[in-house]
Amino acid sequence: MDNATRSERSRNAALQAALTIIARDGPGRLTLDAIARESGMSKGALTHQFRTKEAVLKALLEHQAAYFEAFSRRYLAEAGAAAPQPHLAAQIATMRETMTQPHSVVLAILAALVEDPGLLSFTREMDVKTIKFIEAESDDPELALLRWAAARGLALGAMFGLHTLSAKQRDRLFDRLLDDRQWTALAKAETPRPASPARARKTKAR
To answer: How far is 206 from 195, CA to CA, in rounded Å?
Structure first.
């Protein structure tokens, strides 16, 4: 086994151990010593990968962000491309996917943000790009953003136990958010409003 492979395995073992500790004992019990014991690694080997607990939490957050970004790209390539608003559809489907994650992942994300609220900065940057894509492809940017925000609210509510909707109810709501046919009629019924700057540039370029 080469050094790169060995290092990657050690890193993944440490992250999995961190998730196990968070799920079993709570985020407050997460320490480098606890991760070393849980993973079977020496303290030296662990600190070679992560110098602090905060570095572990950041890595967990980045790992999840990368997972959902990859899911979104796959959805866009396989299913979303056929949708009238492909980026919106991919984002709604991704929000739905977040609810399938283990509770330990949710706790890890929450712990990371409590330890360092600044970690939210990169998610905000991703949101800015996402919103631009959604606005550019929609004839009604506000309605598209409303659907995106509703999907995010459903996902966050489920992840953090903030509402009492059943899994079936959430699935039905996500189905409706993804169904463009139900929203097209609403968009046509509304009073036309000026297109977003991004949409205007796209139309002008045609």
So the answer is: 15
**Which residue, among 115, 96, 82, has the nearest Cα to 158 in the 3D structure?**
96
DSSP string, 156-183: HHHHTT-----HHHHHHHHHHHH-HHHH
pLDDT tens for 52-98 read 988 998 888 888 888 889 999 999 998 767 888 999 999 999 999 98
Q: Which CATH class is domain 1-51?
A: mainly alpha
- Describe the crossing of helices 3-25 and 103-115 by its angle, rounded to 10 degrees: 90
This prediction's pTM: 0.77
Residue 180: how many other CB atoms lie within 10 Å: 14
The rounded distance, in Å, linking the Cα atoms of 133 and 189 is 24
Q: Which of 152, 151, 148, 147 is nearest to 187 (CA)?
A: 147
Contact 110, 161 (CB under 8 A): no
Q: Domain-by-domain residue ranges, the chain? A: 1-51, 59-205
Among residues 94, 97, 178, which one has the least CA distance to residue 144?
178
Strand boundaries in the chain, DSSP class E: none
pLDDT digits (tens, 9 = 90+) for 126-139: 899 999 999 999 99
User: Distance (Å, rounded) from C-alpha 9 to C-alpha 3?
Assistant: 10
CB-based burial, 140-152: b 16+ in 10 Å, e otherwise: bbebbbebbebbb
